[in-house]
Design a protein that fits this description.
single chain, about 220 residues, alpha/beta, two-stranded antiparallel ribbon, 8 helices, about 25% strand, GTP-binding, GTP cyclohydrolase II activity, zinc
Amino acid sequence: MTDKVGVLGKKAPQRTGVERVVNAPLPTVYGKFQAVGYLDHDRGDEQVALVYGDIGSDDVLVRLHSECLTGDAFGSQHCECGDQLDAALRAVVKEGSGIVVYLRGHEGRGIGLLAKLRAMALQAEGLDTVEANLALGLPVDSRDYGVAAEIFHDLGVNSVRLMSNNPRKREALLRHGIKVAETVPLLITPCESNITYLRTKRERLDHVLPHLDAVAHLS
């Protein structure tokens, strides 16, 4: 007899890793994608990869995009996240193929939405993004990109051209067995509202943002 705890009363083994759950067509203003949905059994997060065209296995143009409600949905100019997501989706369509992995659980570099808002309030008082996280007793960056590598493995991707300014993403993919053939800059023109944030990312988080040198006039 089999019940919820398994055969003869033994508890069924808990699933681990990333499981592909669904593949659905997703027409967007950018083009027609396939939305491939995954469940991360280790963290409980639901993840999605937006796949465009025939991606193949080598040198696939990709973006690992960390969830950012304020930037992606509300158009916040505190960061450049919404503009980067827009640029990445346009880039894979222009390329003819590619993947944008939207990483949930990455809000505020992993601290969550409410904590991110608290950090933003501290930044309005003069702290930078690193100081604000630390003042709240939270990690500066706790994001894990292993789930993205597992998604690439599931999709048959061996090597990527990574759209990112963050060297930690490249390092993480390499650690998890995904070759990074090229890092493609994803530079967004800064504004007065996000220039301090972007400079902090360059100076304290090692992001590669050479275009900031051309906007020294912004406060």
